[in-house]
Amino acid sequence: MRKRIIELIEADASVDPRIVFLTGDLGFSFVEPLEQALGERFVNMGVAEANMVSVAASLAAGGFRPFAYSIAPFMTARCLEQIRNDICYQRRAVRLIGVGAGFSYGTLGPSHHALEDATIMAALPDLVVANPGNAAELDRCYAALLDDPRPAYFRIARESGASYGAPIFSPQTAAFAARRGADVTLAASGGSVTQCLAAAEILAAQGIEAAVVSVPIVQPFPAEAFAALLTGAPVVAVFEGYRGNPLSVGVMETLLARGMGEAFVDLTAPQAFPSLVGDTETLRRRAGLDPAAIAARARAVAGRDERLLSGRA
Amino acid sequence: MSYSANSAHLGSSLGVVEILDAVLAVSDLRPATAGATERDRVILSKGHAAMAYYAALEQYGLVAPGLLDAYLQNGTPLWGHVGLTEAVPAIDATSGSLGHGLSLAAGFSLGHRLRGSAHRVFCILSDGECDEGSTWEAALFAGARKLASLTAIVDYNHIQSLAPTREVMDLEPFGAKWRSFGFETIELDGHDWAALVAALEQPSRGRPRVILAHTVKGKGVARIENTVASHYKPALAADLELA
Fold first, then answer.
1. What's the pTM?
2. Which candidate from B37, B103, B115 shows the least CB-CB separation from A50?
3. Contact A62 B107 (CB under 8 A)
């Protein structure tokens, strides 16, 4: 999806001279076409994310539409106060792009994993958090936020995700059913939607029909649009991040506020740095966020787990 | 203001009065231009000197006088550290956490360049915030990109929050550091208004400029001059006469 967001900005830049792209010295083999297209409006800011964020804030104040690009933890945790004070407090409509959602960077290690980034960004006033799960969702998120006066964080996975379609949505309506099913609802965002679609296939083979609801913009949480997709079936929230992430908080708040008594399971990664090397799939499996683990928890909450029913769980 | 609002940071404010007045005198920031994008930009990075900043802006008609009288009262727009407010469009940046201002100034300067604007950017820093790594990220960027529209003025009073800068994190050789980052460097007496104006008005030499303005913290109130305590203690009634 890295390539796709660069393509979107490049297309946008050809019609909008206000676009400025700042990179924290990253994007090898992806950003070069953008550099060609933007000329002096493409600026390599060096390995200095804090400065990059504040410079972007003042560019926005000067009438530009700045994008700042880095690897997700460097784009968020490294320069948190610059985002808080210079972008959010000053209400500058900067687009922050963090590449490497969740376990995307696998074997590169925990320094490069992004499991708390969405939670931290969602804690800031006025900052919109987009977490697209494939190129179609990315296109829709980009369009939905094009003229939004608020700052936004785009949390971008390295993988392209499954090729499900996405309807046009606004930040308020950014929830839709990627698959329908009456027995259990898998609510997910970002790369977890692809994991949930695979889990739904496993469940279907076992006679359980799972809906997969995707929420590509998780902050502010599109509560009404999400609630409208609930069927009364139990809900499993799946997010490649820690507990307290904006998807699970949004799902829980929606269920509580509407007095919905569905059974609810929150699937997140253990809040710990893995000590042993793992690739993306291995880390996901260890965290219980792979299709087989999601299917097993969904089967249990749907009341179809035979071990659970027989008291041997 | 410090007395009526019982506000801290009196020493930090008194020391920077001439610097702020000189910057505003040189800039084109006036009531008629305050709301415009195309104008000079003035950033007080040492946001704890907010009192002096608001008072200086008021001298140039950029803050309604009534706002100063109500400083720090509930429901008014001027905080104890500078924040953007519709009530004062002349304020270009929030500050209060140190080490942000020079980057914000560099962003305005880059914007001026991309728009082909000849306008300037002035950024007033404290010496203490030159401990912050982000200040030097900004300096490296401004120097490397030759952001000639940018002028930083360091209020070099040699005292930071707890102790003299020399003892906490010695900045010297300070001028040499800035020069090595690509800045034209001028050192002067920060209470000499005419010298400040002259330095600010010097023609550009094609790179960013820093003015190391040696000042006396708490200037004008002998009781607190050059003291660490002046960072914290508000004014007393007796000080109003002396100052």
1. 0.95
2. B103
3. yes
Whether residues B104 and A57 touch (CB distance < 8 A) is answered with yes
For the structural domain made of B2-242, what CATH number should be given? 3.40.50.970
Per the prediction, chain A carries an average pLDDT of: 95
What CATH architecture applies to the domain A171-309? 3-Layer(aba) Sandwich (3.40)
Alpha-carbon distance of A133 to A131, in angstroms, equals: 7
CA dist A49 and B137 (Å) reads 9
Peptide bond into B173 cis (omega under 30): yes
Per-residue b or e along A153-169, where b marks 16 or more CB atoms closer than 10 Å to that residue's CB: bbbbbbebbbebebeeb
* pLDDT per residue rounded down to tens, chain B (243 residues): 877 888 888 888 889 999 999 999 999 999 999 999 999 999 999 999 999 999 999 999 999 988 999 999 999 999 999 999 999 999 999 999 999 999 999 999 999 999 999 999 999 999 999 999 999 999 999 999 999 999 999 999 999 989 999 999 999 999 999 999 999 999 999 999 999 999 999 999 999 999 999 999 888 888 888 888 888 888 888 777 655
Sort out which chain A residues have CB atoms less than 8 A from B112's CB and list them: 62
Domain layout of chain A by residue ranges: 2-156, 171-309
Architecture of domain A2-156: 3-Layer(aba) Sandwich (3.40)
* Equal CATH topology for A2-156 and A171-309: yes
B85–A contact, CB cutoff 8 A: no
